[in-house]
Amino acid sequence: MVSLVLRGLRDLSKRAETFISVPRRHRHKKKWAATEPTFSATQLALQNFDMTYSVQFGELWPSIRVSLLSEQKYGALVNNFATWDHVSTELEQLNARDFVNEAMSRGERKPEGDQTAASPPDSWAYSPNLRCFTFARGDVSRFPPARLGSLGVMGYYLMDAASLLPVLALGLQPGDIVLDLCAAPGGKTLALLQTGCCRHLAANDQSTSRTARLQNVLHSYVPQEIRNNNQVRVTSWDGRKWGELEGDTYDRVLVDVPCTTDRHSLHEEENNIFKKSRKKERQMLPMLQVQLLAAGLLATKPGGHVVYSTCSLSHLQNEYVVQGAIELLANQYSIKVQVDDLTHFRKLFMDTFFFFPSCQVGELVIPNLMANFGPMYFCKLCRLT
Ligand SMILES: C[S@@+](CC[C@H](N)C(=O)[O-])C[C@H]1O[C@@H](n2cnc3c(N)ncnc32)[C@H](O)[C@@H]1O
């Protein structure tokens, strides 16, 4: 042992001697690389997803990955403030179908002897009057841009059809007072208004430039009399404060939080959260999401419902946030919150979307080449006390 150590020391001193015998002007510090490789934000996003989602989704990841990198599919949300029957006929002529109406009709055709279909739980109740057209599975046709109709508003709004699921799941009832906590640019706000259920809708987004986009959407799709009669209020406040501002107030609250917007992050450099300069902001997202969901729950009346949603596949931003907010409300406010079971709801929409089969809480639409919608995570919560 001692001889081994001695030999090691001898080798070291030999190398030191050789170094000393080289004249100083010929000595070089070895450089491994002149500059570190630089990656674009979209490349960094893909590296991050490959690392985390391959573990999270296992053998499903390669198929989700290729779908995320391919062109996404859209749905056409019919504007009920336009001459909607005319718009629906036009969309049918394109060979598109109203997936909401189809799912509801399927739900009403209860198979004989199927007890579960005969008595769905209350949490299954969906928001009414929504019509959204999509092309069939495997059909990658595109919708033409919407046009201004005879009533001075646009005929339909193009959006990821999976974005409608959180609004459907929120289960609006006529006369509801509704809060959309992170509302801009406004696709889901528009859908909430289409239900015809909102006695009052508060649409908020902290970013003033984005609330300007929301105002544009309202302007193009909602008639002036509805915009002007105080039915819709647009604000630019920090949603985290909502519990203090208007606690115990709303029947229904949508908390569609800022997230890693997975599809956007793989395709667009602009405003990409995987930019090196936004690393801290990205790491803080789950914390911000818990705070926003907690604020949404505090703003809800006891007995009211909240839907939490993201367009990310990350468990850290989805299920963990829901569990974190439930714990926070129990520990800090002694408020009980229950997760509603959406199994019936998922079954209704399985012909249009692919769902991840192993969510602990909530539902997750995963992108698939046959139906390239999502990602969209949503979880419905009921504030009990
Ligand atoms: C996923 S987007 C919302 C999309 C929108 N619900 C829709 O369907 O068009 C998240 C939004 O949260 C907003 N936001 C970020 N931090 C916020 C905060 N503290 N309070 C309120 N809104 C916030 C962002 O400006 C962004 O517009």
Can you put this structure into words, describing what you see?
The protein is an alpha/beta fold and 385 residues long. It has one domain (41-106, 123-383): Vaccinia Virus protein VP39 (Rossmann fold, 3-Layer(aba) Sandwich). Helix content is 40%, strand content 16%. It has 16 helices and twelve strands. It has helices at 2-21, 41-57, 61-68, 84-93, 99-108, 115-118, 164-170, 187-194, 208-221, 224-228, 242-245, 262-267, 279-283, 285-299, 319-333, 343-348, and strands at 75-78, 97-98, 132-134, 156-159, 176-180, 198-204, 232-235, 250-256, 300-310, 337-339, 363-365, 376-383. The strands form two sheets. Strands 5, 6, 7, 8, 9, 10, 11 and 12 form an eight-stranded mixed sheet that branches. Strands 2-3-1-4 form a four-stranded antiparallel sheet. The longest helix has 20 residues, at 2-21. The chain is globular. The termini are far apart. Bound molecules: S-adenosylmethionine. S-adenosylmethionine binds at residues 163, 182-188, 204-207, 210, 238-240, 256-258. It catalyses: a cytidine in mRNA + S-adenosyl-L-methionine = a 5-methylcytidine in mRNA + S-adenosyl-L-homocysteine + H(+); a cytidine in rRNA + S-adenosyl-L-methionine = a 5-methylcytidine in rRNA + S-adenosyl-L-homocysteine + H(+). S-adenosyl-L-methionine binds at residues 182-188, 205, 238, 256. It is found in: Mitochondrion. It comes from Erinaceus europaeus. Belongs to the class I-like SAM-binding methyltransferase superfamily. RsmB/NOP family.
